[in-house]
Amino acid sequence: MTLKRTQEQRIDYLIRYLLSERKEYQNTGVPANLSDKGLLLRSLMNVRPPAPVSGEFLREQDRYLQTRLSERGVTKVTDLTPVQPGLYLWQGDITTLAADAIVNAANSQMLGCFVPCHGCIDNAIHTYAGVQLRLECARIMAGQKEEPTGRAKITNAYNLPCRYVLHTVGPIIHGAVTRTDRELLAGCYRSCLELASSYGLKNVAFCCISTGEFHFPNELAAKIAIQTVREWQQKNPDKIGVIFNVFKDSDYEIYKRLLR
Q1: Which residues of 146-162 are buried (b: 16+ CB within 10 A; e: fewer)?
Q2: What residue stretches are annotated with the Macro domain (predicted)?
Q3: Rounded distance, CA 105 to CA 201, Å?
Q4: Which of 43, 202, 226, 241 is the most exposed place for a label (fewest CB within 10 A)?
Q5: 101, 123, 128: which is closest to 112 by C-alpha?
Q6: What are phi and psi of 70, to 5 degrees?
Q7: pLDDT mean by block of 10 residues, the chain; 260 residues
Q8: CB of 129 within 8 A of CB of 165?
Q9: Looking at beta carbons, which pairs linking 13-18 to residues 24 or more positions away fall under 8 Å?
Q10: Could you tell me the pTM of the whole model?
Q11: HEC profile for the chain?
Q12: Cβ atoms of 204 and 240 closer than 8 Å
């Protein structure tokens, strides 16, 4: 008989399970405050290596994450209004978007962000998808050490409302942006679109690849993103709708101006 847990009982179970996996966590207690429990659970999920996990853990994790998703709310692509035919601009949390695919700005190891509660999109996507996503990424990467910049891989989305996650590694900028950097960033967008097309997907939501932690200038990155997507759509008319997803107000203003 399966035990029916409340949401708080689930988070307590998940925390205790993850703490029990590592000897160095044996003296770590479970916080009394629900918000602190959430931060601890996210931290433990973030640092957990891609190791086998019990079926009960996955069931309780999935129930916990699905409840969290219903609390945060889901946005459907049909709720959005295109700014141009086949192009959308949406400011919001990409982990709540029910698109065919969302794009993750991944690192070259392709295993997600291991920094506890880090603010990058890679961390958020792996957190809300669940530990299964890192396990799948590890299986994909088993035959290679690093993912080349400008390529893309596809995984299931697990507890995210989208169907798939497209993972791409953008260029990291040190100093001035080079022609190669521009070409590699454009390659990220093309690779994701080609991969989505091969899976028959009808829409893809792109984050602001390579900006933020990878230091690609936001405006230049947006120009490259829009130009590359437009060129691909012109060669592949009416095939894939593209949502440019932004989180910051400054990025929203950049894309709004460039798409005007």
Answers
A1: ebebbebbbbebbbbbb
A2: 74-260
A3: 19
A4: 202
A5: 123
A6: -65, -30
A7: 80 97 91 95 98 97 97 97 97 98 97 96 98 98 93 98 98 94 98 98 97 93 98 96 97 96
A8: yes
A9: 13/60, 14/41, 14/57, 14/60, 14/61, 14/64, 15/40, 15/41, 15/44, 17/54, 17/57, 18/44, 18/45, 18/48
A10: 0.95
A11: CCCCCCHHHHHHHHHHHHHHCCHHHCCCCCCCCHHHHHHHHHHHHHHCCCCCCCHHHHHHHHHHHHHHHHHHCCEEHHHCCCCECCEEEEECCHHHEECCEEEEECCCCCCCCCCCCCCCHHHHHHHHHCHHHHHHHHHHHHHCCCCCCCCEEEEECCCCCCCEEEEECCCCCCCCCCHHHHHHHHHHHHHHHHHHHHCCCCEEEECCCCCHHHCCCHHHHHHHHHHHHHHHHHHCCCCCEEEEEECCHHHHHHHHHHHC
A12: yes
- Tell me which residue has tokens 């690609």: 216
Structure-token match 């691909």, residue found: 232
| CA distance linking residue 194 with residue 99, whole number of Å | 16
